[in-house]
């Protein structure tokens, strides 16, 4: 205890001194000194920043910012935590709510799988998505912890995450299993402890992403937007985009052999945007600072690695200055610029070829892509159709997850799976495993989770039908006739190094250096959202309806009461 | 007993002044002709039942698309507690080891699950066959009810002449009752969409028949089954108890018999629920009884509840649940008491009240009520508003699908259209009920005061 308190006092002093030095612009030597102290201190946190630039086939540019903090925590069970680079707010929220793993993302705009290839992020569904693995049992404490977590994150990110409740939280069992959790499972099995954790998946399809979410996100970066790659984060450019996905993910990784309790906490912050340079009057030749309208002031001082990587198309792009090294990433040539060592202040892009048409992107298309839409007509029922395209030359094992809110009453017996080959042959498929959770009215969404082997070179269609529920007039949103946004279906597959026929996903290529398991990587594909318009009552009618219905009821009561209490009698005439 | 009713009792006992004594030969001739009638009546009934089944099976075989695309989505015919689609979902969940009550879709009885479990793996034709068979059974039981009433009436005429002087018409012939039920478009539609209300109807009809035949225990069990299937038949315990009480003569014995019937009913119902709660947990209870009472699913139907509880302010929701349900349920005992000498009529009135005021009514409920009506054919000429109520019902029935189409399919109308149609429909039923009740009371007056038939009558 004594040691640790001394340590923390020292750290606080050092940090304040460093901040002071930074803000007062002390000399270079001073900075270098403090930074070197950070780096040299053993068993401390490391920070890396990376920007990946990928010119896309249709002339747009993908920018993927990734900031990682690794915190080797002494003992998983230890109660002491010190925060240096690791954002304290996230650390404390995670600790308080018993969170083992957390992924939060805000996305706007659709990722066009067929033109842009595989996405650099795993969460591409429009809206806000939160996935958390929380200690505890299913109906025990973990439910209230989940509530606490969503409310806390809602405050941190200025988002409506507090609207995630039982009604839009699913507990999928197949989709989100990672290699880490499998190992956890083994460990739990070994010592027969009841230490379980429950994965919950919450989704807000109608959440808009804006600067108010970006600002708190930037604040968590050690150098914020003052230096390093973070300096390029210009909200005016980031939100003038075709696709925007911003998120955090907190994942523990276990070092050493199975059974050891040494965990490293990996905290990743990322922003992926697809920008169209033409929007900013940039045509064939532009620089990174022109594109973002911000200058690069060199690397973030506390970073151990600060790089800009450019995925080079086969031809037609010249990049200045000369890259430090080149590497291969997901089958593409990549030029790597080290901002620290090369002291780079800007990177110039010169396109010698006009943006090619979309057709040439065929080779870039991901192995598995998916689309979903609704069919049926009329306001009382409908169906969901999901199409999964497998471009591989071998069957692929996928996991399909679709979570629908309770007011779309899914009939699981209508589930029908067909695979259509290129020459039009249709084959019925049966899933190897189905997990169906029926919805509870105003309580829980329905979720269909199934594992399926998709045949090679086919288009697989999953269909099921639903009836639309009728809501109370207070349950409709203010613009009731627009309808409800329904979150995406998620298709998951394992990217294995053994499979040469599967094109490596960009996400996996980015993830690999930080992953324990270099062989397998889980890829997730989110389908499009759809709008479900539910039948609406007349919102101006409550008083009329109450009056009319009560009149009929009163009429019934009066007449039957009359019948019961009054007898027929002969009229006595006066002249009788 | 009120003094007036005692007076009525006394008046009924002396022989009617018009019923002259009959000679022996006339009686034997009448008996012979009755036997002939019964034979031809029997074959006519068989034909009617056969034709009814044939029409239904033909419709199933010839128009499967029409049924699956248009009729089965018809909210006027199937409700959340009777829909076949939901039953199929329940069966599917059972087959995959998920509790069917752990969710918002299935709200029907586990008895139906048991019944259809075998048919889940068979072709659909067998399921259809079960429905057609059940409906034909309902028609057969209705015919039997009519037949037993007819025999009573014939005996009475032979002994004492017609109850009301100059009344010639007997109640409808059994085959006519069966035909009116089987070829009623409402009951035809109910079977074609495979609404499980058919089984509830079957239990109600069986309970009434058993009650009339004096099989008290069977009647109680069938009432409990009907209550288990759709809750509202709980009201029928009162007339069933009266039926079994009518067998014993002393007042003390009658009261004892009523108490015994109610106790037996509560025991059977309680045992059934205890078994299913043990099997499926409390989820079963919330998914069936609670669901019916609290009107958790606001899907439109032809009743009063859905739009009211979509629009009602949240603070008053509970209050109005109680008010609405009490309005329906509270009349069970008073109505049975009022018509205590005609328990079958009391039961018919209650079936009408259920059809008008239950939380998830469908056209099928009206079909049973209309099926029971021809048994009391003698009341037809006493009904003052028959034309009005027939028109109201026809408007309500005709307009509901049209307005539904305008609201849901085309979007050119709104919810108020369909709501208006349901109001007219319920109002028509209320008019019919009141009219039927008054007709019965008016006829009673004629029976007891035949001399005043030509004079104006008032209610006091």
UniProtKB/TrEMBL annotation, chain A:
Pfam families: Gpi16. It comes from the Eukaryota. The chain crosses the membrane at residues 541-561. InterPro entries: PIG-T (IPR007245). Keywords: Membrane, Signal, Transmembrane, Transmembrane helix. Residues 1-23 form the signal peptide. This is Subunit of the glycosylphosphatidylinositol transamidase complex-like protein. It comes from Coemansia umbellata. The gene is GPI16.
TrEMBL record, chain B:
This is GPI transamidase subunit PIG-U. Pathway: Glycolipid biosynthesis; glycosylphosphatidylinositol-anchor biosynthesis. Belongs to the PIGU family. The keyword Membrane applies. It is a multi-pass membrane protein. The chain crosses the membrane at residues 45-63, 125-147, 192-212, 219-246, 258-279, 316-337, 344-363, 383-404, 416-434. Pfam families: PIG-U (PF06728). GO terms for cellular component: GPI-anchor transamidase complex.
